[in-house]
Amino acid sequence: MFYGLSNYIKKILPKRLFYRGLLIVAVPIIILQLIISIVFFDSLWIKTNKGMTRALVGEIKTFMNAYENEKFDKEFLIILFKENLGFDVKYVPSKPIPKEFTKRWFSPIDRTLRRELKSQLGTYWFDTTSYKHLIDIRIKYKEGHFRFIVPKERVTSSSARIFALWITFPAFLLITIAIIFLKNQTRPIINLAKASEKFGKGEDVEDFRPSGALEIRQAGFEFEKMRKRIIKHLNQRSEMLSGISHDLRTPLTRMKLQLAFIKDKEIAKKLSNDISEMEKMLNEYLQFASTRSKEKTETFDLSELLQLTITKYEKNEISTDIPERVYFDGRKILIQRCIANLIDNSIKYSNNILVTLKKSSNNITILVDDDGPGIPKKEIENVFKPFYKVNKSRGDSKSSVGLGLSIASDIVRSHGGNIKLEVSPKNGLRANIFLPF
């Protein structure tokens, strides 16, 4: 039960650190203000309002008792109450008071007036809304009624408004200050997250500078150290593969020249084929080593790039389903290399290829379907490993070293996407590429 409640709370809580921090600051302030307001209105404002209303009703009752006494001059009594108590009193003979009036149950003034008038004066009527600063009170007397026009300040205190202002203004001020400080504290975390995302996609993050609190700054410095170690490792890998491939080109060139002096044409042809295969392998090595290109991210038309890539093959067996003007932020040359590797792979083992481009609200999908023999399910994960070759189903090419799919996977993942291999509708292989939009 507690576990379910915990999950429910997690769902309704904000996900971002800034809003969570704001809740931590704002909620106690708001709760404190509510408690103070409730205590004030219950123990001070409402009780003061009740006492002032009771005194007003008592004065009205005193006037009516004195009015009934024959010893007092009626006109003098009215003038006396008007000058000393601020009452505007008028007796309306032979006219009953209104039977119905609007009862505002949410108004403390109306509730208190109803309670006191009913308990002390019997039949009554009052109106607190028609006049801004006055209250119209009517009390039944014989065949007519008395009409009392009294200032509204006699039953309510103006300090409530001042109190409400002083209790809300500091709260808003504190929350505003908290928002400014939280923005400054969360900005370094956001910058660190953006730098990590850019580095994960293979982009340069030279403009990143650790900042913020000590813990956040330390995390930024550790990220910088990790980034430099990874870059150093990748550069060493690329330099090693490039160096080996470059060094092997020299003896291959000499072997090509020596083939011209071999008289046996059959042997010369076999050696020439072997050298060509070795050159293709070296080209794949160099391509794999240069996967992490220094190319800058740019916005380009992905539809146009796919069409240009497919046109270069000049093969009728490649069909397309590509909408116009699908723009994407990425590294154009690497995306082109990825698509070319997948198409090359399909051309080797199939007769018909379909390239499809789809765009949704949050991602772009590229599908490369063929009608070849496919790949066994148990080998689908392995084919993305560098230098891994499948010896079954799709055959084995001597000119391949198993780097095409590995390069394609590295390129897609460096753009924050994903690539999956599935069975195509043509019972061949489908390469499914997801790119974040």
Word description of this protein:
It is a single chain. This protein is α+β, with helices and mostly antiparallel strands. Among the domains are: 143 residues, Beta-Lactamase (2-Layer Sandwich); 141 residues, Histidine kinase-like ATPase, C-terminal domain (Heat Shock Protein 90, 2-Layer Sandwich), CATH 3.30.565. 55% of the residues lie in helices and 15% in strands. It contains ten helices and eleven strands. The strands form three sheets. It has a five-stranded mixed beta sheet. Strands 1-4-3-2 form a four-stranded antiparallel beta sheet, covered by helices on one side. Strands 5-7 form a two-stranded antiparallel sheet. The radius of gyration is 44 Å and the shape is rod-shaped. The mean pLDDT is 80.
